[in-house]
Amino acid sequence: MLNLSINGKPHALDLDPQTPLLWAIRDHVGLTGTKYSCGIAQCGSCTVYLDGAPVRACITPVSDAVGKEVTTIEGLSSPAGQAVQAAWRELEVVQCGYCQSGQIMSAASLLQRNRKPTDADIDQAMQGNLCRCATYARIRQAIKVAADKLNGVQS
Amino acid sequence: MKTDQIVNLSRRRFVAGSAVSLAGLTLGIIPTVAAEQRQAGPGIAGQAPETAGDFSPNAFLRIDGDGIVTVISKHLEMGQGTYTGMATLVAEELDADWEKVRVEGAPADAGRYNNLFWGKAQGTGGSTAIANSWKQMRKAGAAARQMLVQAAAKQWQVEAGEIKVKSGVVSHAPSGRKAGFGELAERAAEQPVPESVTLKDPKSFSLIGQRIPRKDSPEKINGQAIFTQDVKLPGMLTAVVLHPPRLGATVSKIDTKGALAVKGVREVIQIPSGVAVVADDFWQAKLGRDALSVSWDESKAFSKSSAQILDDYRQLAEKPGLVARTEGDGATALASTDDAIEAEYSVPFLSHSAMEPMNCVVRIDEAGCEVWNGEQMQTSDQYQIAGLLGLEPHQVHIHMLYAGGSFGRRANPAADYLLETVHIAKALKPGTPLKMVWTREDDTHAGYYRPLYLHRMRAALNDQGEPHVWDQRIVGQSILKGTPFESVMVKDGVDMTSVEGAANLPYEIKHVQVDLHSPELPVPVLWWRSVGSTHTAFAVECFIDELAVKAGQDPLAYRRKLLRNHPRHLGVLNLVAEKAGWGEPMGRNRGQGIAVHESFNSYVAQVAEVSVRRSVISVDRVVIAVDCGVAVNPDVIVAQMEGGMGFGLSATLLSELTFREGRVEQSNFTDYRILRIDQMPEVEVHIVASAEAPTGVGEPATPVIAPAVANAVFAATGKRLRQLPLRLG
């Protein structure tokens, strides 16, 4: 039995320890905001946090999450996360939406580390997150709006 | 003011809470429903059970006692903003409070929910959602508004003409009475359905033309939105399918031992498209497939390579094809010219590669077949599934869920991945829900690609440098041959989707010839966002640039001259040139390129600014002008222009699906590359003000970027690139 803490709640899962965290979260915990798209850490749709640090859940064995706090899009509640989600609505970033949980998790993590990201910082932090609808222009802009919100700048 | 006639087909009146009478009523703006579909179908608006007190004046909306307006979208939300668009049209004429408007996907029922541009078929595609719904949804909203007003007039004993509706509140100023939609819903349901309604004068629009929040954003931002991938039903099993390594290969032997030994694996089932491994969850099914041993008979399998296909097409282009357009006498004129200009353009196969790989959930029992899918072509999918199961189409119930992108992939007349799921589900115990999931690799390998195309272009210029001969020969597979669309969209052997964007060349040229070869290959092909224009716009807009250069004229001025009788093309060209600062010096290794193209009755012009360093092309800035008639949701239009261009930019710079001896060479985003954020240019979108009926925006931005960038690369380097993806050096 693997004991996990996801979004602050305990879960005991009877799984092969090598099962990717992604499928543990989706199929066994029932949180489906974290998405599958490539399975090889090439698209970022499955981004979650382990103790606050972003990982690609599709290549992370569920056993790596034992003893750590897992945060998924459903549990994102940090000030950076809230600022990003608000900016995402303000700028209407979303199109099909499938990659957006991962985009938001990556963006919030960037702002957690760097409250004043430049375009280059954004490109570097976000280039692992694919969006086939190509919402990139708005993602870039929304991250800046979120940064302003966090820094108390009136938008 | 315009008055539109509404015919009340049933002439029945509403009785709140009585499902029997409700189920019989449909406004005549909607075609008649086949009786059996009506009986089998759910409640009148969508598929929610009717609740006493709800007001459901037609198939497209429902108002409950709390005043929540639920708009039933007959179109799939796949990112293009259609849920917001449908709701905007209804809410505008209803004068609803936007905050209280919700959207629900319609069930599969062509009687009520057909695409008015597709005859009796229900579906989403060809950038038609807003265009075909423009009046239908507004009438639905207007009819409901009128019934709410009638209800208030009766209740308050006042003149209906003195009643006003604003933001979900019905009020009568002289008496000071007012009520929310919810309070009036039950009474409104008792009012007769109006025979005709008056639609608003565009001057009094309060939602159309405004930037209003998208309806799908909140749940897509907090992880609550449900895609097919997220469906979980009690007792549901998951299947992963092993497809043949090459097209046309067949199973010769299966050893199931390894797969069945994997924990959670229930069954291994051979189906026409491969071998399915069914397990309790995805990961077990995937491990089961890894452990499966199948030997394949590849003796009859496809064995060609992309380079060879291109060579074959080149040979074919030597011979005349079927004529798609002919004016004047191009052949004679060309023969008499001594400096004909000739060029060959080509584009590769492309995969749609939506972020949500294809998947489907199916449950089959005695009553029929229930399907959960990012559903794009309800009617044809119903027929396909019913045909396979020996059911009537109305016994196939489809839940239209959000699609994690489609770009044409989910609108497949062959219903490939749906039928694959049905084949597996029918081998299981009746009533077992089954989710079939493709991995990214499956999604890349399993086919239905944008066809590889070759264009041979020839032209001759007159003394003023203008073309007087234009000869375009197109070679590539037909998408529609052999599908139910063939009878409508293949004319005299010419597949309209192969030549759109070329046969309707807008440039004024005396002798024009466009012909087509549609060679047959076993590679399954399908429309890909903007269909024929994906390749015709590239060939036409680059070649016209070549002619301008040859004539020593500015590419913008050259186009303007040849488009003098095409005001909407000129409108977007002039706007984009002004906003982009066309002709400003760009500096070393930088260049501007321009292109203009009409598709799906919308006009788009783009100016791309590129830099070239060490043979790497960077697109720095793209300015877009669009004329799509009335801008219903301006911000959604801007988003579709940005994203549609970005989607096209992947194909311009990166994406290519190739065959090597019959095998697809790419498998995941490592080798089938798509645009990443660091490659996304700055984008600026400008909408031409228009009073014309609205036209599509999902596709028209996509085909314009490749020629704009290729022309910019020429301006920057003097090198003319004629093959996608563009490569220097």
Give the number of helices of chain A: 5
Say which CATH homologous superfamily of the largest domain in chain B is assigned.
Answer: Aldehyde oxidase/xanthine dehydrogenase, molybdopterin binding domain
Radius of gyration of chain A (Å): 15 Å
Mean pLDDT of chain B: 92
Query: Which structural class do the helices and strands of chain B define?
Result: alpha+beta
Q: How many strand units of chain A?
A: 5
Any low-confidence stretches of chain B, pLDDT <50, length ≥5? 1-43
Q: Any idea of the CATH class of the largest domain in chain B?
A: Alpha Beta
Number of β-strand runs of chain B = 31
The number of distinct structural domains of chain B comes to: 3
Largest sheet of chain B: 7 strands, mixed
Order of strands in the sheet with the most strands of chain B? 12-13-10-20-17-18-19
Structure, explained:
The complex is a heterodimer of chains A (155) and B (729). Chain A is an alpha+beta fold and 155 residues long. Chain A has 2 domains: 2-75, Beta-grasp domain (Ubiquitin-like (UB roll)); 79-150, Orthogonal Bundle (DNA polymerase, domain 1). Chain A is built from 5 helices and 5 strands; from the N terminus they run ββαβββαααα. In chain A, strands 2-1-5-3-4 form a 5-stranded mixed sheet, sandwiched between helices. In chain A, helix 2 packs across helix 5 (136-150) and helix 3 (100-113) packs across helix 4 (119-126). The longest helix of chain A has 15 residues, at 136-150. Chain A is globular, with a radius of gyration of 15 Å. Chain A starts with a strand and ends in a 5-residue tail after the last helix. In chain A, 59% of the residues are buried. The mean pLDDT of chain A is 97. With 729 residues, chain B is an alpha+beta fold. Chain B folds into 3 domains: 2-221, Aldehyde oxidase/xanthine dehydrogenase, molybdopterin binding domain (Aldehyde Oxidoreductase, domain 4, 2-Layer Sandwich); 228-299 and 358-437, Aldehyde oxidase/xanthine dehydrogenase, molybdopterin binding domain (Aldehyde Oxidoreductase, domain 4, 2-Layer Sandwich); 306-349 and 449-717, Aldehyde oxidase/xanthine dehydrogenase, molybdopterin binding domain (Aldehyde Oxidoreductase, domain 4). Chain B is 29% helix and 24% strand. Chain B has 21 helices and 31 strands. Chain B has a 7-stranded mixed sheet with strand order 12-13-10-20-17-18-19. Chain B has a 5-stranded mixed sheet with strand order 15-25-22-21-16, with helices on both faces. In chain B, strand 29 (659-660) and strand 30 form a beta hairpin. In chain B, helix 12 (378-389) packs parallel to helix 13 (416-425) and helix 17 (533-551) runs parallel beside helix 21 (705-717). Mean pLDDT of chain B is 92; it is low at 1-43. The interface between A and B is large, with 54 and 60 residues.
